Amino acid sequence: MTSGDPFDIAPWGIGATGWDPERIARRESVFALSNGHVGWRGSLDEGDPCKVPGAYLNGVHEQHPMPYAEDGYGYPETGETVINVPDGKVIRLLVDDEPFDIRSGTLHEQTQFLDFAAGVLRREVRWTSPTGRGVTVRSTRLISLTHRSLAAIDYEVEATDAHLDVTLLSEIVANEPLPEVHPDERVKKALERPLVPVETFVSGERATLLHRTRRSGISVAVGMDHVVEGRATVDTEVADDVARTTVRARLGRGDGIRIVKYVAHESADALEDATLRDRVEATLAAARELGWEGLVHEQRAYLDRFWAHADVRLDGSPRLQQAARFALFQVLQSAARAEGRPIPGKGLTGPGYEGHTFWDSEAFVLPVLTYTIPDAARDVLRWRHAVLGLARERATQLHLAGAAFPWRTISGRECSGYWPAGTVAFHINADIAAAVVLYVGATGDTDFERDHGLELLVETARLWVTLGRWGADGSFHIDGVTGPDEYSALVDDNVFTNLSAQRNLEAAAAVARRHPDHARRLGVGADEMAEWTRAAVAMTIPYDHERQVHQQSAGFTERERWDFEGTDAAQYPLQDHFPYFDLYRKQVVKQADLVLALQVAHEAFTAEQTARAFAYYEELTVRDSSLSAPAQAVVAARVGHVDLAMDYLTEAATVDLADLRDDVDDGLHIAALAGVWTALTAGFGGMRETDAGLQFTPRLAHPLTGMAFGICLEGRTLRVEVTEEATTYAIDAGPALRIRHFDDDVTLEPGTPVRLETPPLADPGPAPRQPKGRSPHELLAAADGDHEEH
Amino acid sequence: MTSGDPFDIAPWGIGATGWDPERIARRESVFALSNGHVGWRGSLDEGDPCKVPGAYLNGVHEQHPMPYAEDGYGYPETGETVINVPDGKVIRLLVDDEPFDIRSGTLHEQTQFLDFAAGVLRREVRWTSPTGRGVTVRSTRLISLTHRSLAAIDYEVEATDAHLDVTLLSEIVANEPLPEVHPDERVKKALERPLVPVETFVSGERATLLHRTRRSGISVAVGMDHVVEGRATVDTEVADDVARTTVRARLGRGDGIRIVKYVAHESADALEDATLRDRVEATLAAARELGWEGLVHEQRAYLDRFWAHADVRLDGSPRLQQAARFALFQVLQSAARAEGRPIPGKGLTGPGYEGHTFWDSEAFVLPVLTYTIPDAARDVLRWRHAVLGLARERATQLHLAGAAFPWRTISGRECSGYWPAGTVAFHINADIAAAVVLYVGATGDTDFERDHGLELLVETARLWVTLGRWGADGSFHIDGVTGPDEYSALVDDNVFTNLSAQRNLEAAAAVARRHPDHARRLGVGADEMAEWTRAAVAMTIPYDHERQVHQQSAGFTERERWDFEGTDAAQYPLQDHFPYFDLYRKQVVKQADLVLALQVAHEAFTAEQTARAFAYYEELTVRDSSLSAPAQAVVAARVGHVDLAMDYLTEAATVDLADLRDDVDDGLHIAALAGVWTALTAGFGGMRETDAGLQFTPRLAHPLTGMAFGICLEGRTLRVEVTEEATTYAIDAGPALRIRHFDDDVTLEPGTPVRLETPPLADPGPAPRQPKGRSPHELLAAADGDHEEH
């Protein structure tokens, strides 16, 4: 990405060398390991120096009161914030009683490398203590993709001097102090030392800590066990907030001591403490039985299978190749074993956004999961289904029918403290419905459709019918909502929302027809289905006939235009420098909104409408959100502005790796990472869902000379290999698959790749302009400048 | 009022007898005494039972952090809340060592009476202690209208049994515990015991406590002195938070002991402590010199002068007569000696609204003050002028020119924690400008106009020019603001706001032309004045041509109508039972907005437009605010629906005396009380300002058979006496005054009353309807029902 990028380029991993006090937290985020259930930030083994310690168990959170200067009806009263579970990744080291700390002594070399193929984080450090005693430390860390609650560390110390006394303190640490919890006293109080010790267990080298969160009442058990290789004394002890196995050895020059540490994690709202402990013990026993090499082998086998169908190969740019695989690997890590829990905006890579899940999950991450690891997509939707009761309660509170899913949450309860960009962003309901439709369409999972999808579609459809209203003109309107663009709020007939609601209503009716008995059990009758269809057909899509362009929402194009020329670079993001009311009343777009509608509801727009709308909204879109560039990349590519699309792809790929927004310390932007995959497949691949199956309109742009990606489709893999001249499609199993390449329908048979030429690109006209200073080129250049200042 | 009304009817005062534990706080509010600078709630002398102790000094407040669940640019960080100053009204009584407490022993009789003519609160209690010892206590309390910082109590105990040992503990109590401070921890912490003791002074029977607020750094000195009549021992002592004079006497049957207590109050941001104390001492010395009878005499003389020109006489309804005088008396009390301080929404009668001042002050209270005690109106506007610097800073923060006055404040800093009904309610700036124009027009005070008014008009005009924008059609728009109706927010071209801004701009240009040198010093040039005029002329006033009715704001009449039929009585106020977004997007009006524009900007509407608009908005207005009924009364009367006007007048007069909204415990609704006067004069009197002077269109309604009121106009008094047949106008001094009676222009000469007949009332057609259950009749009936449930 940018010249300030400190990461080493490699096709199947990402590495960094040395140590940079300014970039501790950023590396902790980038090198995070997770399987969607357990997450460890890439902190150094020895625990220090550390900026943001991070050990998470999906769903484990603490509650806190939500403060308001002025109260209002329906304001959520209880907030939720992700907390650190007891941290089992700490292995402190003493060399001749001197703490191993890369800030003291002499750091000869340090390398960290996150391996996408092996699914491990490797580290090697050569260091001499302040008193002149040398060691080499090698560690490999993994969070198992095959054993959901298990993490493990292979840790080795080698003496480079003679007669070295080495002490390893392998720990589980609870209630670690955090850098900055929350500015509000009440919240801070609730989140300080959130884990109350319940019980400790120790037996040989095995130790378990059992805690309970103070308010949310979640029990958490974290246990560890060790296998020590080499001559050493081993001793294990526990206290309320720490379990510690001490390994002491005297090493000769070239001698080593190696320990394998297994860490098991369990949490529950309601289980007996003994049950939790038993589960931890069972996981540890199984891990010992399997052994480190067994775990590593399983991990690689899992990833071999994943990459075999999901890899995106990019020719012509090693940087983009790395970024694409990093993105997909982190998306996989965020979701692989979440199973019944949501995907937070930051995955399990940091405490950003309080660990909440947003619409990002369904609108950005689930499409990628659906096509690469569909079970994970299904599991997220099952979680939404599991919290339908809370969404129904919320709808009732708002005097609406059906279900109103929360804008941000961990447990399923609404935790948004700013309703104009929370409660009224009702499109999240349609985003969930769209994810259901996409998942079922791509997998053919009719069991899910019947048992979970139907009810999600029905309850969200019910919401729209009561949220919207019939106009005197016979059209259906949805007033007073907020769409994706957070610089507009409380608008009428937001196109993205209305098109999404339209599809939600249509899908509910269609799926109810497919499962009439189950629909009847949900109280769906013919009248209700007819009402959904009527509302869908009559949905208002505002269009400015004078300017011949769709309106992001009713009247949008008649609003005053933001004074982009008069806005300095330092005044972005605008929300930090201007009051909401001024943003809301003017034409200025934070993030793709109408353009996202162009992407996902492409069939609602003609090619000419798409091109005009894209050009119009490009001039207004400032991209103060990481969720914007991917959609802009997709639509830019589809309308033929492939170089611009490449710029947006580069920006999306840069958000985390070059810390474009100076906020990676708190965790990765999982949705933006998902957007990298989408920009490639749906943008440069031109992939889109149509009534007649998937359509592709592949076109590359410099520096890409070739691209290949795979898509899971009803149990088989579709591989798409794109060159500048042609695209080759192949499926690995039956039955035959109908796709469309540009305007040609093709039927693919297993084992018979089909190569189709790329038609010439019609001149898309001049590239659209962005607001002053906000082109992706300028943003990247500005970010470079920032980084150089460090 | 309503049948649940527990107050005794009298023409020049209001009384209550007995004691009702349910109504303690309400009586404390109704019997509050104030001069606008010092305020004492009507608590019982002995301090208990008490619900909301209240001793206020205008402007004395404490700061506290303002909490937000999610932060935003420009959100105020520091809140302000009125606090109790050391309370000097407490005189505890022991009868044979038994505390005098009306909850114990036998209460034979208790009367309280607030005397509007004397300006005192009288109380008499006959009581026998649990041990059978009887006393009669008589107290008279006043807060001096002639000595700004002085309050005094004449307290007398008479023995109705022989050999009674009586002990009086006359106190100043600081940091009294409050019933419920604030739900938020940070705020609560900041407001608990807000006064830090600095110093105490005692000398003979004189004692002074000096405190300082912890965060806002305001020094407060309260001192007392006593004159004791009767044989007694007297002893005075002080501690940090209490000063106490103990008076002991042994009384024979029929003997009495009487003390007069003087209490002086001073506060300052910056003065030396010694200066504060000296001022207190000087005030106490002057008070002793003057004596109780002297004080009482001055008080009555002050009020005699006030009532002589300002009284509203109502024939035909003793209840309405009392309500009208109560209202005017409380308005006077809220403002008479505020001098450089704002008028809080509750005056100094309680802690409601945190003691903040709002637009109520300029839009509702100042018109009454302008016509009855114009110096007080001037002083409030001088306060606005004094805090112009803060308003300029706020405008700069919002990227606007000129001044943006705070929606709610004590110090002049914005304290609104909900921007959609705070920051963007920019009309407050035009409300202040309108108050300037009205004051100068009624008084001819050109010194004020030049030295204060001009700058207020210029800086508010500058705001509008940058807040608004020029449309492609050449018209001037003001987008994204909130008008008076808090059930609509972030609207474009709110008629009330735009008409008010228009007058603001016109007045700024006109006054700048009258004072060219001073205008030049404010940087006002010909170009800027021309711009103001252009914007005023081009101001957009949305009108629905299909429905032939003005739109409260652009598009308002096309919004979905609130489901009034489906809304239960228990669901009012709507804001407590429905989310804002649903209220905002529908046609439902909390309080007069377009109707307030009909009232104050009457010349912008034809008679037909006024009648149609009134009827249209009547169907939508639910009056969930006490600020609504007065404007509805005025416009109802003007369009000829005089019985409906009477209902609204009755409602306005009932808000406090029958506790219509169940919130009088926290203080009186000063603006609604001002609205009683306005409903009478501008409604039944038909008084309105026109370019050709005041116009009157007087019409009475049952039960009124006659009405007389006085208006201060450029130093003279205009008396208007209305009967059903005719109206008599008279001025008491020269020069001649031109007025208009209906459509006739009349010139009044001093000493020559003019009697003009009332033309017949044209049929106004059927009375407009209100939303289900929200007619003033229904509301009053519902309030009656509520009270009966107690």
TrEMBL record, chains A, B:
Keywords: Glycosidase, Hydrolase. Residues 687-748 form the Glycoside hydrolase family 65 C-terminal domain. One of its GO terms (molecular function) is hydrolase activity. Coiled coil: none annotated. Pfam families: Glyco_hydro_65C, Glyco_hydro_65m, Glyco_hydro_65N. The keyword Zinc does not apply. Transmembrane segments: none annotated. Residues 325-678 form the Glycoside hydrolase family 65 central catalytic domain. InterPro entries: 6-hairpin_glycosidase_sf, 6hp_glycosidase-like_sf, Gal_mutarotase_sf_dom, GH65_N, Glyco_hydro_65_C, Glyco_hydro_65_M, Glyco_hydro_65_N, Malt_Pase/Glycosyl_Hdrlase. Residues 749-790 are annotated as: Disordered. Residues 17-265 form the Glycoside hydrolase family 65 N-terminal domain. PANTHER family: GLYCOSYL HYDROLASE-RELATED, GLYCOSYL TRANSFERASE. Belongs to the glycosyl hydrolase 65 family. This is Glycosyl hydrolase family 65 protein. It comes from Microbacterium arthrosphaerae.
